[in-house]
Specification:
CATH topology of the largest domain: Alpha/beta knot
Bound molecules: adenine
Strand order of the largest sheet: 2-1-6-5-8
Strand content: 15-25%
Radius of gyration: 24 Å
Oligomer: single chain
Number of strands: 10
Number of helices: 12
Distance between the termini: 62 Å
CATH superfamily of the largest domain: SPOUT methyltransferase, trefoil knot domain
Mean pLDDT: 95
Helix content: 40-55%
Structural class: alpha/beta
Low-confidence stretches: none
Length: 254
């Protein structure tokens, strides 16, 4: 899969792209990342990419011409692939969107900076707007890396473990069970005995119950959509009853 990233700060991508999973994915030819500096497409003497907003007010706005020129000269006019603008005003990125994008041959990501980009970029060049959460970053670069990383994990061969992306929390519809590694005891804190038992059936059941417990405690909304077995439902029912009993005890004390 090919990613074309349009940014004023291409250098910030390099360290992350040259590390670990994404570096290997590029070496294996599973992903190609092309970084394009929007400034290179500004035709004036000083390569200006921003200007004051019409109508006044603070901050600067990214000019449309260099962004259109960059995207169209790399991907054609109009581009054949989705063109994503990273912005806090976009749809919130999630696991499902990442999986859908992983079906594409090419994805273009435009990183906004300053107060925003000229509205004509949104209207006439961009096909989707994505946010990575309800907070404002200094620019879209970190968000583009988040999208690139999460999408790449769905491409066959990117993860060493072929089940990796499937086992990840949101794929199962549940949060992940707790993980432990050696030593079996650290500062007096022991790894749960069941994990040392070698009994694969008991370990699988314990992990499933821990995943259910964690999801019930932290993200009960996920349980409504998760695929649950009869045993899962019985376990959750026991959790609910235990909680109800504890609450009753607290009320009796008052
Ligand atoms: N640019 C600035 N903040 C952002 C956010 N939360 N998501 C995506 N792009 C952004």
């Amino acid at each position: 899969m090919r990613f074309d990233i349009f940014t004023l700060f291409p250098d910030v991508f390099q360290p992350y792209l040259q590390t670990s999973i994404l570096q290997r994915a590029q070496q294996k030819g599973l992903i190609e990342v092309h970084l394009h500096n929007i400034r290179d497409y500004a035709t004036d003497k000083h390569h200006i990419t921003d200007d004051e907003p019409y109508g006044g007010g603070g901050g600067m706005v990214m000019k449309p011409e260099p962004i259109f020129a960059a995207v169209e000269s790399v991907l054609g006019a109009p581009p054949a692939c989705p063109v994503i603008l990273l912005t806090p005003q976009g749809k919130t990125f999630n696991h499902q969107i990442a999986r859908q994008y992983a079906q594409l041959e090419t994805l273009a990501l435009i990183c906004g900076r300053y107060e925003g980009v000229d509205e004509r970029v949104r209207e006439h060049l961009v096909t989707d707007e994505l946010s990575i959460g309800d907070y404002v970053l200094s620019g879209g670069e970190l968000a583009a890396l988040v999208v690139l990383d999460a999408v790449s994990r769905f491409l066959p061969g990117v993860l060493g473990d072929p089940d990796g992306a499937v086992d990840d929390s949101y794929a199962l519809g549940l949060l992940e069970y707790p993980h432990y590694t050696r030593p079996a005891e650290f500062r007096g804190w022991r790894v749960p005995d069941v994990l040392l038992s070698g009994d694969h059936g008991r370990i699988a059941r314990w992990r499933r119950e821990q995943a259910l417990l964690r999801t019930w405690q932290r993200r009960p909304d996920l349980l409504e959509k998760a695929t649950l077995s009869k045993e899962d439902k019985a376990f959750l029912e026991r959790l609910r009853q235990t909680q109800a009993t504890l609450r009753q005890g607290e009320n009796d004390e008052i």
